[in-house]
Structure formats: structure tokens, C-alpha cells
Write a structure and sequence with these properties.
mainly beta; six-stranded mixed β-sheet; globular; 3 helices; Immunoglobulin-like; homotrimer
Chain lengths: 336, 336, 336
Amino acid sequence: MLTSLALACAAPTLGWAEAHTFEMNIEDTKITLVGKQDFHTFAFNGQVPGPLIHVKEGDEVTVNVNNLTTLPHTIHWHGLLQRGTWQMDGVPDVTQPAIKPGDTFTYTFTAEPSGTMWYHCHVNVNEHVTMRGMWGPFIIDPKEPTPIEKEVTKDFILMLSDWASAWAFKPGYGGVPGDVFDFFTINGKAYPDSQPLRVSRGDVVRLRLIGAGDLAHAIHIHGHVFEVAFKDGRPLPAPYEADTIVVHPGERYDLILRADNPGRWMVHDHVDTHTLNGDKPMGGMMTVIEYTEISAKDDFYAWKDKQFAPDFYYEESLKKPHGMYDAAVFQGQAIE
Amino acid sequence: MLTSLALACAAPTLGWAEAHTFEMNIEDTKITLVGKQDFHTFAFNGQVPGPLIHVKEGDEVTVNVNNLTTLPHTIHWHGLLQRGTWQMDGVPDVTQPAIKPGDTFTYTFTAEPSGTMWYHCHVNVNEHVTMRGMWGPFIIDPKEPTPIEKEVTKDFILMLSDWASAWAFKPGYGGVPGDVFDFFTINGKAYPDSQPLRVSRGDVVRLRLIGAGDLAHAIHIHGHVFEVAFKDGRPLPAPYEADTIVVHPGERYDLILRADNPGRWMVHDHVDTHTLNGDKPMGGMMTVIEYTEISAKDDFYAWKDKQFAPDFYYEESLKKPHGMYDAAVFQGQAIE
Amino acid sequence: MLTSLALACAAPTLGWAEAHTFEMNIEDTKITLVGKQDFHTFAFNGQVPGPLIHVKEGDEVTVNVNNLTTLPHTIHWHGLLQRGTWQMDGVPDVTQPAIKPGDTFTYTFTAEPSGTMWYHCHVNVNEHVTMRGMWGPFIIDPKEPTPIEKEVTKDFILMLSDWASAWAFKPGYGGVPGDVFDFFTINGKAYPDSQPLRVSRGDVVRLRLIGAGDLAHAIHIHGHVFEVAFKDGRPLPAPYEADTIVVHPGERYDLILRADNPGRWMVHDHVDTHTLNGDKPMGGMMTVIEYTEISAKDDFYAWKDKQFAPDFYYEESLKKPHGMYDAAVFQGQAIE
């Protein structure tokens, strides 16, 4: 037994690592941000955000990418080390030629380090990432979770982004100096077409915030003090308490919120001019934490008749075995 | 005596908690940012910032709000937990219907947690918070101060905000995508109409910065390294030294600055384009730390004939017993 | 020997402090940001960034400044304490009258505290700092380096800034509300005219990021997790890991990156709209970490024929004895 233990220590990943192969199409897709505001995107598997990739630290990942659009693309795996596989990093003209329309490229790499990561196109990022929806979450579970991670009962992903409606139907253009961003979304939807975060008293909630757009967002949560536990997927050595966390493009913050205060609580960008849809106030980057202990039926409640769409924060998919998961709630409409 | 001590421990707040009742009117008010630049605000008790609310952790607070304007409003108590009182959180269509013009609403809640908090309207925040001056400071003293808090000899509040002059006299409008912010204020005034921060050698200065506007501000203090001690009212587990602190909307940072370097020192936003009034340089979000040991009479000093207005940082009101305090220095002019 | 040691302890700086005298001219200078985009600057010694000042904590520094332009200027030594020398802080109308065209001013002060500091003009900062290139690095080595500092094998300085081309040739104007920033540079150059960061496996790399412009930049480094070790020149009590660090104007962050992953890795602002030159994508605030172990000759590599310019990050000058160093790579063209 001592011998086998020594062996396990010498090559600790061998027993755990899985191999995953995923198919990813990039498709011209129309999505709706809110109300009648549609947008032409180059969507991963026809949805914005793209499918959830959820694996374990050390897993071997293969992604076959098919570019079905008329413009060149790549996929960069933001936050992954690509140790020994720099050619898989997905940067056009630096680590590979861009994937031409109609072409396929296969990315193969090890999933490390653990944490909240994401993927996105790296061609003309000012347009493709900023306003063509070319991003999705990439969650890598650690081999050894931290104590706080083991306590988590609800796990939510929130990808923040910004859109300039002037370019909505001009694919191949946009994301240039002087642009006016006028729509602001969580997982591709603006309030009131976003979805509530449903929790119950006693839940230990993990909120994985990902800055996928072009602007900074000062996310404020009412009724709670949360712990800022992870930055860019890495555990902070000195987690701190806050009620407002600023997420800039490229950054990730994982917050731990102890659901100990039943009520109905706003979650919103405190950059106030990000809470409009176009020039219409009370929209944009806002949602509500709903406790199951509290009826949602107050007459004055804007969402009292809200149709609930599960998995909007990938909270259902995250419970499934490791793999890649599309989500019907994010599916757009193919553009021929 | 042992018995009474045991009792006090069992219910520690009973002996300390006070009950406060405050009256708050929301009034159409003209304020002057700097020079001739006036602005139509919906001011709490006719002033910007609104009155200081200063209580102790655990106190019971009642605020009777009278909406004397022609638009709907609420008050949200930013940072307060509202434990068990979520209907007092002040969010229209989520925790209450907005307070209609002419109507009154009474907020009742417990003051917790301790720290630098603030209050603001939560209706059409893009306009009402961003550029109608609907905000004020809410300071909750802790039951058990941290060691550094006990050392403080000067306590200053600085509320940072941004204004787009195009909307100055169009109440009910503004704060929309594409707005050009062209005035930048500390406690509602831009340099040179702001006020110096007066200290003496040996002072332990607490600067409570509150992001009340729409932009990020990189506040730089000359001649000192300060300690970043509190974020959003909560003590940081690992306070750090800096000379520039970035405050985004909704955030609060409490800085501890040891006044050990007599001189005349700039304090300003290092976002350089926030140091103008309109298109006139050397204005905006700037002030000066003046040591009493140094004469202010140098010929070249821009503020050598400055008329000093006490309580501009609520430093006098903060010394008074707990309660709510208007400040004459912030009073505007009623708009009929 | 015991006696001399005791003496050294009693007056520890005496034996170490050096006195330096530097000459600094401010000159109308044309620099090229990228391609054909030139800019009229008021350059320190005719270069942007200005010369490197590199001294040791406690050194006595004298700088004779000659204003050869037609506008008033000063120099502020950002981050230096100016203990007992507040009149040397370089703020017009607060610590001194501005230096008139043709005039000279001598600054004398002690270099403290240690760390990554910088200098810049303090007259009309919205124009002079934001878009006339009036800034340079000021590095103060500590008397007692931290353990991580002793490990460093490569030391790079990156000054980040932003430019609105509309004002390129209108000196005396610009940096006003509503400006559209459309060029984004590291040490005054935009991609592809910036330079690679060359490292070798095993290097311990220090990246000194300085926010010298007007916007926030979310610097993301591929293929590595770095340690955020210093903020504003001061060591952080709880250094943390990240792959993206946000630098606002006035701030400095020193990152420690262990070069353990040979490859070709992007370093770029993740504010995607800062990766253009004007409206042309794939430019702006980007560079590449090149490992010497990897050939740069891939056909697809945008920089395969790049002409390498040493000292672009002041990495060569930083190895020289303490002093002030111009760098040929930053030299502009005199404007008569």
C-alpha cells in the first residue's frame, strides 16, 4: 500500500485525467439582446454565450472547430496555460494562421490551471469579441477544491458584454473608436429579458463573473456582503468582503455569497448608464436574486409573471458530468 | 455584576442601539457645480450631497421621505443588509412601487453592517443618480472599531460624481449612451470651487471615497503613501499601500493617511480629462491638502485668498452626536 | 569592525546615498506612434517616453529643467514623497509658478520611497500628459530588496498611453471632454511598430506597468499566470495570481512572471477597442513575449522579419549604473 501511494504521488494525474473531444461550429446567427434589438453574431454552435465547456484540471481536450462563416476566425482559450502547446493558443499570425471560411482546425491541449476560464475568437477582437458574441465559458474543476468551493450549493456563470447597435447588422465592421455602446447584457440578454438568480436560504452561491465585453462593469449586489474569492480563476490569498465588484474585459471574479437573507435583491451594474436599453432606462445589465422563500407575486414586481428559463446561468449544465453543453436558452436563429 | 455582564453579552446590542427618525424631502433644486455652471437636481433636503446620516451599528433608523418633485423616486440604502426588511431596500418595481410626486414613504430598518455607506434614488438611476444629485453619505460606526479607526483624528467624506452639462436644465432626461461628461465634482463642487482638506502634522486622516457618479476616478494624493484600509465599508484583511486609488461607481474606499509631511499637496483624479470644467483645463476633480503648519499666502498659490468653508467634507458634522445633519455649504436654490 | 558596523547602522544611508545631477530639456518634438501616424509632443530630451531616471532609495537628485517650448510646464515626480521639499513637487500655482517658455527650474529632492515611479508635466495635464508625451519612468531601487526582487533576471518598463489623432498637430489644444482616443501605445508605439519582450526559459521577469495615459487598460498575458507583486511601487502584503491586470492612469503595477513555458505569447489590452490603429484592427496596445528557445521564423508569424530594437523596455539601461539614460529608440524629430 505504501508502494501504490508513492506511485500515485509520482504521477498524480494519471488516474484522473479524462480525454474529451468536442465539435464546435462557428455560424452566422441572429440573437435577440432584449425586446426587438437583434444582432448579427458569429456564434459558437449557434448560441451566445457559446456552449459550456466543463472539465477537470489535467483533462486532455480536443476541439474540432468548423468555420461556417464568411470571415476568418480562431479560438483562444483564455487563461489556459497551453504548457508545451503554444501553437494551440489561437492567436492569428502569432500562433497559427486564422481559420479560413469553410476550414477546420483542431485544438488539442491540457486543461490547466483550474478555475473560471473562457474562450473567444482572437481575430479582429474589437469586432468579433466585442459585438459578435464570439465567447463562451470554460470551467476547469480543480483536483483539490478549496474549502469554500466544497461548500458551494449553487454555481452561476455571468458573462458581461456590451453592444453598439449601430453595427448590429453590419458584420465585418464595428468596434471602432468613437462607438457608442447602448446595450449591456448578462449572458447575452438585457433586463427585463434577463433571468432571475434563484436561491434558497442556506445556499452557498458561487457567482462566476466574466468580463467578455469592452467596458468595465461595477456589479453591485443588494442585501448581502459577498466574499471575493477568486481572481482570473486563481484563489486569492486574502479574500475580501465587498458589495460591489468591478469586472474589466478579460477578468474573472468568483464571488461567494451566503444566501442568509431571504428577499428580492437587485444585482446590477452601478455604472448607471449601463442600465438602459438604447435610451430607455431600467434595462441593461440588471437582474434579481429571488429567494424561493419569498413569493414573486407582489403586484408591483416587474417580474411577477416572468417566464423562468432554467440553465440561463449554466447552473443546470454545471451539475452534469464533465463535457460540453449547449443551452437551448441561448440558441439564436441561423442566418443563411 | 457578573450577572448583568452575562446579560449584556447575551444580547449585546440592547444596551447600545438607539432609534432615530429623520425627515427627508426631495426637492427640485438648482446647484452650482463651479463658476456659472448650474444644474437642475432633485436634491435631498435641497442640498447636494444630501444630508449626512451618521449612526451606530445596530441602531434602528426611520426615514420619512416626502417626494416634493414632479417625478417618481425611491431611496436605496447602498450597502445596508436590510436583514429581514427587504421591502425597505428602495428598488422600484422590485421591493416597492416608486414614491409618486406628492407622496410619502417611510423606510424603517436596522443600520448594519458598519462602514462607509451611502444612499441614493433607485428610479432611472442613469439620470437621477448620475446627474440629478440624488445621493448622500450614510456612515455607520462599528460597535467595535478596528485599531486603526481608533487612531483617526480627521474624518473626511468625498463623494465623486460626473455631469453632462447638455442635460443641466432638462430634468427627466439625460444619462444616456453617448453622453459627454464634462464636469467632475467632489461633494458637488469642481476645482477651484472645491475646498481644501486641512490637516496638521500628526493627524491620522481617514478619507472616505464614495463613487456616486458614472465614471471611474483614479484619485492620486501627492506627498504621501496612504493605506487602503476599507473597501465598501468592510475592513480589508490585507490593507495595502498606494498613492493612487481607483473608485468606480458604487464602490467606497476608506484610506488612512498619516499626516507626517507638512506642505501643500494636490489630490486629484489622474484621469487627466477629468480635470477640466467644460473645455477649460485646471478644474474638475481636484483639491489640495493644506497643512496648518504651512502658510497659504504664497503669491503663486491659486487658493491664497480662498474663502474657507468648514464642513465641506462633513468633517464637523461627523464629530457631532449620531443623527442626520444638513450642511449649509451644500444648500442649493429651490426651483419653483 | 564591530564599531564600524554600529556606525553604519546608526546612519544607514550615509554610506550609500549618491548625488545625481541631470539635465532635462523640454522640446517640441514629432514622434511616430505607428505607420504614418505622427504626433506633436513636448518631449523630455526629445523622446517619448522621456529618459529613464534610475537611482537608489535615499539618493539626492537634482534636475535642471529647461523649457524650450512655447508653453509653460513643470515636472511632477509622481510617487515621490518630497519629505521636507514640497516646493519641489512640481504643481503649478500650488507648489511653484509654472516654468515659462525659455526659463529654467532646478528640482532638488531625495529619492524615496523605492519602487516604480514616474515623472510628468503637471500643467494642463489633460493635454500635456494625455497626448503630448510628457512622461518618463523614475525607478528607485530599494536599500533592501524583497526576496522576489533579488530573483529577477529581466526587468521591463511598459508605459501605457492613449492618443486622440484629431489633436495630433494642434499643440496647446486637446484632451477635452468628447475626445475620441484612437491610438493606444506601449512606450509610445502601437502594434505592429511596438517591440517583442524577449525572454528565455528560467527567466524571472519583472514587468513594470505604468498608467501614463487617460484610459484604463486590462493587460492580459497569454500562457502564464503572473504574480501581482507591487502596487504604486510598494510591495503588496498579499501578492496574488492573475492573467489580466487593470492599470488606470497614475497607477503602477509590477508583475513577476516566471518564464517557464517556451512559446510565442500575446500581451495585449483586453479592452478590445484598444487594439486598433485608428479604425484598423490588429494594432494598438499589443506586443508578444518571444522565448529565445522558439524560432521566430514561422511563415505565418506577423513579426518573422521584425527588426529588433533593444532597450525598447529600458531593459538594457536598467542594467547600467544609476543615472539618467536617454534611449535612441524613443528619439523623435525636432520641430523648429
